[in-house]
Design goal:
The protein is an alpha/beta fold. The protein has helices at residues 21-36, 62-70, 95-109, 188-206, 224-234, 252-262, and strands at residues 2-12, 45-48, 85-88, 114-121, 137-146, 151-159, 167-174, 177-184, 216-220, 241-242, 272-278, 282-289. It has a 5-stranded mixed β-sheet, sandwiched between helices. The protein has a 5-stranded mixed β-sheet with strand order 6-12-11-9-10, sandwiched between helices. Helix 1 (21-36) packs across helix 2 (62-70) and helix 4 runs parallel beside helix 5 (224-234). The longest helix has 19 residues, at 188-206.
């Protein structure tokens, strides 16, 4: 028994949404609902895994605003009716995978029947994030619980602290404005790949699988050094690892998942490994058996 994923969507930001994480998340969520065939009324859990905010505003949480714009049961729950719980999860490039684990817990417990995970990357503009390195994009996926043997297995996380030296996003008050600064070292990607391989190996060991039994790896980030290090750590050819453009951040994992669905690779695969690594260095992995 496990959580299955459907309605996976990644959208690019154009005018006027490219400077609005909120609009990009809403656009992705709306598209995911449409492609999954579910209505807003059916979604009982919304998790936003994005980091970036319009105008770098720290409050309020973005998830309730996304919920309202999508029309996910915005009224108070009432007897015999549905309600939607919404909140943010902040874990950078690992955010979407973290949100999946949280949603899986709610679904396994029977607390909710359908969950929506959204995320977005957007330069807030107005000089509030000089040199912002990520492309405007949004990603979303719908998940539900199944009683058969398909879906998500266990999750494993590994942390090897580097004091934030490899990759760091900080928000500082400069001249009465919140200014976002992103620092990145070239050595980070290779180190992150090594940490991600350890998390993946722990998942494989729990399921009593060898790396050769993994037909496909959906991973983020997309940097070649990360992919090479991950492939070496797992003993797999790099061709089995699918990523999405290096210009993406929190959206990268969902975009990679969308790509393997678009090409038909996911439907042709029985055992998939989900892997993500981000600042910290933190890395997570999970096994997924797609429905067929």
């Amino acid at each position: 028994m496990g959580t299955t994923i459907e309605g996976v969507t990644a959208v690019a930001g154009g005018w006027p949404s490219r400077h609005s994480a909120l609009r990009l998340a809403v656009a992705a969520g709306r598209s995911a609902l449409a492609s999954s065939g579910h209505t807003p009324h059916e979604i009982e859990l919304l998790i936003n895994a994005g980091l970036y905010r319009d105008r770098n505003l720290e409050e309020p949480a973005l998830a309730p605003l996304i919920q309202e714009d999508l029309g996910l049961n915005p009224e108070d729950p009432h007897p015999g009716g549905r309600g939607t719980l919404s909140f943010d999860v902040a874990n950078g490039a690992c955010g979407a995978l973290t949100a999946l684990q949280v949603a899986d817990g709610f679904l396994r417990a029977g607390t909710v029947t359908h969950a929506l995970v959204v995320t977005s990357d957007a330069d807030p503009g107005h000089g509030m994030a000089p040199g912002f390195p990520f492309a405007p994009a949004g990603g979303a996926l719908v998940c539900r619980f199944t009683d058969d043997e398909q879906g998500l297995g266990s999750f494993r996380w590994v942390n090897e602290p580097d004091g934030g030296e490899g990759f760091r996003s900080t928000l500082k008050l400069v001249g009465h404005r919140n200014i976002l600064a992103i620092e990145y070292q070239d050595v980070f990607a290779a180190r992150a790949g090594g940490v991600a391989a350890k998390a993946a190996q722990e998942v494989l060991a729990e399921h009593q699988l060898l790396a050769d039994g993994v037909e496909l790896v959906v991973a983020s980030p997309a940097r070649p050094e990360f992919v090479g290090s991950l492939a070496t750590g797992l003993g797999l050819p790099a061709e089995r690892i699918v990523t999405a453009g290096p210009e993406l951040h929190t959206v990268a994992f969902i975009a990679a998942l969308k790509e393997v669905i678009r090409t038909g690779a996911l439907a042709a695969t029985r055992t998939v490994l989900f892997v993500a690594a981000g600042a910290g260095i933190t890395a997570g992995a999970a096994l997924y058996r797609p429905p067929h």
